[in-house]
Specification:
globular; mainly alpha; 279 residues
Length: 279
């Protein structure tokens, strides 16, 4: 692949813009004056809807197209599916290596407790909830950063191969990175009451995208071709679907009503669908 400095810088700039869009989501979250659990539920569901839609409607079709060209009509779809589930397995392994957030302790017997004991128990329960929210926000930031790493590589390589395709993917990824930034910033903001800290973690989760572009390019440049790009797209789709189903949707259900979570999912899908149609 013959590259010029201009090609490299343009592709990196696209990837940087897409990655730092998590900071836009974080800014939206921390500027909202009153955050409630309904907003949190809808935001998490929105992020899940965006990820699921872009995975099945954008990432996997592009992956299969590239892999069919390399492996043929018979084997190409099979390789796509295998790469998809390899991505799921990768993020599942990382998920299992990270301790889960502890559930807040339930009060033992409210009727038999004195008022002072009840107040103390409420304060302890509130503190446990804040700790659990902080852990959830940090895990979301880590998980998003992990999946942004190969996603950044995929965006970068797409921009190098075809700037028009790269621009489309950059816009799509940036749009879905905004609710990802929200999903990181909101629980951190709830837990710490610090806008600066929430925004910092939202931005850091997106920095992995340009970092993944550079590291992936330097390590894999000798083997770069359409086949490898297809494998990356399929694996990234699997990672995003897993995060949506295992982390975002359960959290959306936990912090709001069922219909709030579903409203967020459908809204996220609709926004992503419109963005893909427009661009």
């Amino acid at each position: 692949m013959d590259l010029t400095t201009t090609d490299f810088l343009r592709a990196f700039l696209m990837t940087l813009i897409a990655g730092l869009a998590t900071g836009v989501g974080g800014l939206i979250a921390v500027r909202k004056r009153q955050l409630d659990q309904r907003f949190l539920s809808i935001a998490l569901g929105f992020s899940a809807g965006v990820m699921i839609y872009v995975s099945f409607m954008e990432m996997l079709p592009k992956a299969q197209e590239a892999l069919v060209q390399h492996y043929g009509d018979g084997s190409g779809p099979w390789v796509t599916v295998i790469a998809f589930f390899v991505g799921i397995g990768l993020i599942a392994l990382i998920d299992n290596l990270i301790p889960e957030a502890e559930n807040p302790h339930e009060p033992k017997d409210w009727d038999d407790m004195a008022p002072d004991a009840q107040k103390q128990q409420q304060e302890q329960q509130h503190e446990h909830k804040k700790q659990a929210m902080l852990r959830m926000g940090l895990f979301s930031a880590l998980a998003i950063a992990i999946h942004n790493f190969p996603e950044g590589f995929a965006t970068f390589m797409s921009a190098l191969e075809d700037p028009a395709l790269g621009l489309s993917i950059t816009v799509a990824i940036a749009i879905h990175n905004i609710p990802e930034g929200i999903s990181v910033a909101v629980p951190v903001y709830y837990a710490t009451d610090s806008r600066r800290r929430a925004l910092r973690y939202a931005v850091l989760s997106g920095v992995a995208e340009p970092l993944g572009a550079i590291v992936g390019f330097l390590l894999l440049r000798p083997w770069l071709d359409a086949r490898l790009l297809g494998l990356v797209f399929a694996a990234v789709a699997g990672i995003m679907v897993y995060i949506s189903l295992d982390e975002l949707l359960p959290s959306a259900e936990k912090y709001g009503r069922h219909h709030h979570a579903i409203l967020g999912v459908v809204s996220g899908m609709a926004v992503m669908a419109l963005s893909l149609l427009i661009i």
